[in-house]
Amino acid sequence: MWTISMRILHFLLAFLIVFLLPVPGFTAGIETSFSCSQNGGFCISPKCLPGSKQIGTCILPGSKCCRKKK
């Protein structure tokens, strides 16, 4: 009985971690070059330059919206 309930609790904990933690959802809402520049970013492909971080994506496939790290 005890092992079954512990297995269920571990499963529920894993479920909560996977589905309720924010995924790099930091890209939500920044999907165009216009919204990228409004958020202080710039579009670049294929990855952000050193000293900058990705804050979204841009219209072109594979391009990222990047902003300088603070």
From TrEMBL:
It comes from the Eukaryota. Residues 36-66 form the Beta/alpha-defensin C-terminal domain. One of its GO terms (cellular component) is extracellular space. The keyword Transcription regulation does not apply. The keyword Disulfide bond applies. InterPro entries: Beta/alpha-defensin_C, Defensin_beta-like. It comes from Equus asinus. It is found in: Secreted. This is Beta/alpha-defensin C-terminal domain-containing protein. Residues 1-27 form the signal peptide. Keywords: Antibiotic, Antimicrobial, Defensin, Disulfide bond, Secreted, Signal. One of its GO terms (molecular function) is chemoattractant activity. GO terms for biological process: cell chemotaxis; defense response to bacterium. PANTHER family: BETA-DEFENSIN, DEFENSIN BETA 4A.
